[in-house]
Amino acid sequence: MEQASESVCLCQDGYHEATLAAVTRLGELSTRLIQAGNLHALLKEILAAAAEISKTDKGSIQFLDPSTNHLRIVIHQGLSPKFIEYFAEKGFAGSCEEAKLTKSRVVLEDISKFPISENPELGVILEEGIRAVQCSPLISREGRVLGMLNNHFSAPHYPTEHEKRFLDVLARMAADLIERKQVEEKLQISYNQMEDRVRRRTAELDAQNLELHNRADQLSRLACEITLAEEQERHRLAHVLHDHLQQILVAAKLELSVLARKVEENELQTIIADVSGLIEESIRESRNLTVELSPPILHEAGLPAGLQWLGRRMQNKYGFEVKMDISPEVELKRDDVSILCFQSVRELLFNSVKHSGVKSASISMHYNPEQDLLLTVSDKGRGFDPERVWSRTAGCSGGFGLFSIRERLSMLGGNFTIDSKPGGGSTFRLTIPRAALRGMRMEKRDQADADQDASAAAERKIRLLLVDDHNVMRRGLASMLRQETDIEIVGEAENGAEAIEKSRHLLPDVILMDFSMPRMNGLDATRIIHNELPQIRIIGLSMFDEAERAAAMLHAGASAYTAKCEPPEVILSAIRKVFNVRKAHAGEKGSSEAVPIRIASRQGVPVRVKKSTLAEQAQAAQAHLFD
User: Fold this and answer.
1) 428 has which bridge partners?
2) What is d(CA 501, CA 63) in angstroms, rounded to the nearest whole number?
3) What does the alpha-carbon distance between residue 609 and residue 588 come to, in Å, rounded to a whole number?
4) Residue 492: in which H helix or E strand, if any?
5) What is the mean pLDDT of residues 584-611?
6) What is the maximal distance between C-alpha atoms in the chain?
7) CA 611 to chain centre
8) Within 13 Å, how many C-alpha atoms sit on residue 70's CB side?
9) CA torsion sign, 251 to 257 to 261 to 262?
10) Three state DSSP letters for 295-310
11) Each residue of 129-146: pLDDT tens digit?
12) How far out from the chain centre does Cα 286 lie?
């Protein structure tokens, strides 16, 4: 009895020791499985733990191939290559197939008791030295068969309950590990697919952005071309009026003035006066139409001067006061941007005249910190609902013309906003981005004139050079001037470059210089001649009676400025006035300053303008302009 009790105790002690060892092994294995690692290496440890618990050195772990529904060995221990190769080709059947179908453990306690003839696999297994097999299916948390955990015994064997429990735990570990790996692989595949879709989508977006960028460039160029095309047509029509019709009318008026001096009959004098009046009215209407089509000052002096001119025109024509706040730094190089800004401001001012119910508006133009151009037109009138206007003008250029302004600005990359409400006035803001400006400041010319070294002129005729690109205009002026006994025409020129050469050769006393000419305009020619030959007095001529043109000519060195359509007496008075000033200063040492004169035809008296900055001259000349 005592021996039997000792045997039982020893067995129990052995059982507890085996259990403790198995639990310890499982604990270590669990810790390893929590950490990320190589799947095959971890499954090998599970297989080794199963073999240790089952007291066998042979075993395998199989994966179920979803595509064929066959089991294939992926991890093995103690099996020969021949055995592995055989079942790698044909897959397992028998006990493993039954365990797969039933999703429960299958044990072959003694394989030798089964008829080999009915199952050739058994012969291969017995030849490998295997007498017993236990197959534990690896089941996912969702109940899918993932594979099989096999233990192979060299003698007949049936697992104890102790072994079964631990084998179940190991099977659970292996199943979780395989399932986790499969999930990771699916996630990786999904991630790769997502990355591929993101790359493709990114490439598509890059292509679309490039296309949008190209279209934006095309729209910007289109806006430029549309604006310039419209302005070119306007300018062409204005050119026809100015360079042909108006010149012919002025020449006809000058010829009539010559004829009037030769006719003594009162009846003919009356007819000539009537015809001259009709010609004068035609010139005035043609000139008004010319500036409405394409204001020359905008092309010749830039946007700020063009807006100043527009403000005065609104005052003279509509009695509408326009207050200006224009930064002196603003100067645009691109013609299309200047034209678009000018046309937009003109449209907005016309809207204020028609719809605001007030008699004044304000214009502000300056650069913001990013060097974008900000152009604002505002009034304190009755205001309106912008949304209602946008809805009414969407898709067309009608209404207030606001839609056209917004669309053309947007094609340049700018924007157009309106802040208005009924009874609260209106503010229109135009923003032109820096990239569309390409602005530059004009270099200031040294205004110090060379000392005059000409001697006092003797009493003689006034030697005059006539400069105008229109032959009919030169003929008309020459016909008028030849009637004067104190004036001698020493030469004619049809552009600024020719005027410079003839000035150097002929050394005239006075030059009648047309403002607008091809090859070189009168402004540039005046500047060069005045710097080289300050003793020559220059009188600027133009079809347009504008402060900005007068100021520009005076700044360049002209002594006077007048419109071609003025009565002949005004032009003759200017010639004699500047010549007399030249003689008065000829003998004064160090006196070389030309005395700028502005001719106010309605008063018939030359008006002296102080020579100063261009802006001050424009302001002074503006005070002496008359309708």
Assistant:
1) 377, 418
2) 103
3) 21
4) strand 487-493
5) 41
6) 174
7) 43
8) 10
9) positive
10) CHHHHHHCHHHHHHHH
11) 999 999 999 999 999 999
12) 40
SS3 of residue 151 by DSSP = strand
What is the DSSP-derived secondary structure letter of residue 536? S
**Closest by Cα among 547, 546, 561, 506 to 529:** 506
Distance of CA 365 to the CA centre of its chain: 21
CA–CA separation, 123 vs 130, rounded Å?
A: 10
* Strand partners of residue 562: 541
Secondary structure of the chain: what % helix, strand, coil (to 5)? 55, 15, 30
Beta sheet of 537-542, edge-to-edge order = 487-493, 462-467, 510-514, 537-542, 560-563, 597-600, 605-608
The string of DSSP letters for 35-102 reads S---HHHHHHHHHHHHHHHHT-SEEEEEEEETTTTEEEEEEEES--HHHHHHHHHH---HHHHHHHHH
**Contact call for residues 610 and 620 (beta carbons, < 8 A):** yes
The CA-CA-CA angle for residues 559, 562, 568, to 5°, reads 115
Q: At what angle do helices 614-622 and 547-556 cross, to 10 degrees?
A: 140
**404/227 Cα distance (integer angstroms):** 11
pLDDT, the chain, mean: 77
Q: How far is CA 251 from CA 283, 493, 515, 567, in A?
A: 11, 17, 17, 12
Compute the distance between CA of residue 509 and CA of residue 491 in angstroms, rounded to an integer.
12
Please name the residue that has the structure tokens 């105790």. 9
Condensed to tens digits (0 to 9), the pLDDT of residues 497-547 reads 999 999 988 889 999 999 888 889 999 999 999 998 888 999 998 876 667
From the number of C-beta atoms within 10 Å of its C-beta (0-12, 13-18, 19+), residue 550 rates as buried
Distance from C-alpha of 252 to C-alpha of 517, rounded to nearest angstrom: 21
Reading the block at residue 322, the tokens are 């326009």
Residue with tokens 């059947």: 93
- The dihedral over CA atoms of 373, 379, 384, 390, expressed in degrees to the nearest 10, equals -20
How far is residue 39's CA from residue 42's CA, in Å, rounded to a whole number? 5
Tell me if 327 sits within 8 A of 304, measured CB to CB.
no
- What residues contact 396, with CB distance under 8 A and at least 6 apart? 403
pLDDT for the residue numbered 104: 92
Residues 327 and 560: their CA atoms lie apart, in Å, by 28
Please tell me whether the overall predicted TM-score, pTM, comes out greater than 0.85 for this model.
Answer: no
Task: State the Cα–Cα distance between residues 103 and 560, nearest whole angstrom.
Answer: 114
- Dihedral of CA atoms 348, 351, 353, 354 in degrees, nearest 10, equals 170
Distance of CA 146 to the CA centre of its chain: 59
The pair of structure tokens assigned to 352 is 């204020």
Q: CB neighbours (10 Å) of residue 343?
A: 19
* 113 dihedral zone (left: phi>0; alpha: psi -120 to 50; beta): alpha
| Rounded distance between C-alpha atoms, residue 230 and residue 342, angstroms | 13
Nearest to 375 by CA among 332, 335, 321, 407: 332
CB under 8 Å to 33, separation ≥6 — which residues?
42, 173, 176, 177
549-590 pLDDT tens trace: 788 888 899 999 888 877 888 888 889 888 887 666 554 433
- The pLDDT score that the predictor gives to residue 619 is 46
Asked if 515 and 542 touch (Cβ cutoff 8 Å), the reply is: yes
Beta strands in 182-259 (DSSP E): none
Asked if 62 and 148 touch (Cβ cutoff 8 Å), the reply is yes
Continuous segment of H or E residues that includes residue 256:
helix 247-262
Whole-angstrom distance, CA of residue 465 vs CA of residue 508: 6
